[in-house]
Amino acid sequence: QEKEKIVAAITDSPKPPPERITLTLPVLNAARMVVFVATGEGKAAVLKRILEGDEDDALPAARVRPRSGQLRWFLDESAAKELTIPVEKHSAL
C-alpha cells in the first residue's frame, strides 16, 4: 500500500529472510523494465491468481504495472501449468 517511499523495511516477513528491504510499487511501476522469474509447481496456484485473477485486494505482484515500461514473466512449465491465458514458449539452448 506504500505510495511515497522508494524502499520499505520489512521486519516480519513470513518467508526468508524475515528482515529485508524491498522496492515499493511506485518504484516498480516507474521502471522501464520489470522482470519476474518463477519456477516450480509450488508457484502454479499463486501465479494463476496473479496473472488471471480479478481480485479487489490483489497480491502485490499483480499490482506491478509499469506506466511506460515493460513487464515480463519468465516461468518454467511447472510454474505455468495452471494458466489458461496464452503463453509464449521458448526452449532452452
Automatic annotation (TrEMBL):
Organism's domain of life?
A: Eukaryota
- Where the record annotates domain Glucosamine/galactosamine-6-phosphate isomerase, the positions are 2-73
Signal sequence residues: none
Q: List, alphabetically, the SUPFAM superfamilies matched.
A: NagB/RpiA/CoA transferase-like
Task: Give a GO biological-process term.
Answer: carbohydrate metabolic process
The cross-references to Gene3D superfamilies, in alphabetical order and at most eight, read: 3.40.50.1360
**Designated name of the protein:** 6PGL phosphogluconolactonase
Please name the source species: Steatornis caripensis
